Amino acid sequence: MSYQVYQFEAVSIQEYVLAGGKLKTMVGASELLEAITGDLLEKTIDALGLNEKVINDLPEKGKLGLADREVVFPRRAGSVFLMVLENEAKANQFAELWPIVVSNFAPGLSFSASIKSDADFQTASRSVRDDLNNQKNQPQALLPESTPLTVRFQKTGLAQIQSPLKNRDGLDWSMLAKTTHEYEALSEKHLQQEKSSRFVFPKQFEHTHTDTYWLESFPFTSTDPGNHSLAIIHTDGNGLGGYLHKLFAALKEVSPAESIQAYSAFSTGLDEATQQAAKKATDWLISAYQDDDNPYKKKVTGKILPLPMRPIILGGDDLTCIVRADHALGFINTFTREFETATQQFVKTLPKVFEGILPKTLTCTTGMIFLKSNQPFSLGYALAEELCSAAKKVGQKLNSDMPPSLINFLHTTNTLFDDLDTQLEQELETSSKQYLSRMPYAFTAQQGRPHLQTLFETALHFDDKKSDKLNPSAVRRYAGHLHQDPDYAEVFWNRWEKQSSEKGCSTEKSWSQFEEQWSELSSENEEPVADLISLLSLKIKNPYQTVGGTV
Predict the structure, then answer these.
(1) Which pTM value belongs to this model?
(2) What's residue 25's pLDDT?
(3) Domains within the chain, CATH numbers bracketed
(4) CA separation (Å) from 370 to 210, 274, 334, 337?
């Protein structure tokens, strides 16, 4: 009897979720993806008369011993699953049916799928992985195809259909599925603490004037559309691709059952560690949000409030979410700290076959883009992903085995985004080749990179409403002089220092501390000017400040 190994993987999922830019369609898309490896997969294997076998019930040695209609899932999370069975006819039926089911359930979603058969379990598994890697370089046709005479939906350019929804001129199949989907699986997984029961995730950016719609709307700091600033956050684990090769190599030395159990322990443990970190970060956000003096709360009646955050992708070592700008760095700082703590515990519990392969603690890298709620989200996410990749390259140079947790963030006001290198050159580089940023920052004290906490401590010296603080407008003027006349920028800095000293002891002390921290953050031809301006203009809360009992 041969082993039948089938693997499915959704690809380009962030682009799928963010297409169209409406929060409601993003919510629907993320829930569709969550349901694929949940209810949809359950219904499909039930329809084929298959039953899932508990992994821990597999025999430790020899063959898997699966019954004729039994299947086992070594991995099943984050829009990816690996399925093993021994019934060749049922395996082929599933392989023929599943792509059709997914295409109808989540139209427009790109995915890779492969089935391989071999008497040796490890050979079949390796062949499936190789086939999926090859498919990533092959373009996938999306159905229905859009011919030259097809009416196209203006938000996506895909074939438009007649929408059954009221007050809609039309949608494409993908947008219709996202808009009408009612699952809340991702939200339930993300909010499972008792104190979270009075909070819900928002479903739209637009504000209307009834209590019901206020409850569903994103709670910005102001009802003025000009203040609707958000952060798109993309966080990815460091170095796991390389470690996976070592893990798979170790599995060659054990029986099929031990291999499945070990791989399941790794994938499930990593997924749970990421979810645990996300829940801790959500706890921090709830505490910080309750401390807000937010006029939005007065618009909502009752005890339930919408959170200033929405998860988009949560699974494996990935997190993509949208957070209100002022809380974004606090949220991701908590997530990063908790991810390192949770993975440290997770690594200790892995089976013996993986002993010594993974480092004691896993780390993650973040790319974050600040933008307005009416700016194009798909382009913004692309920049966040590029920021993450750029930070990862820096981290690799610091430690190739397990890079430290770093963050790249950028505040953009452009409507049309260029690629990252062009964007950084236009916004952060002066004509004299002075670079106005010190990204990426380290979340903890790290040799070779500036510390994010030092940047926030620098920002605490500024407040235009307090006489003992420095004026934020001076930083903006300094940035302007660096662009226009670098020589005069030095003169301006000296004059700024003199004026601060003349104002009195408290301001002079503030300047002295500020200049010391500024010197610590700066390097040759690089200063954190744009980074500080972003913190001040977006009024970003200090993530290291004690909030609601959480540091």
Answers:
(1) 0.89
(2) 83
(3) 3-135 (3.30.70), 198-429 (3.30.70.270)
(4) 29, 23, 18, 22
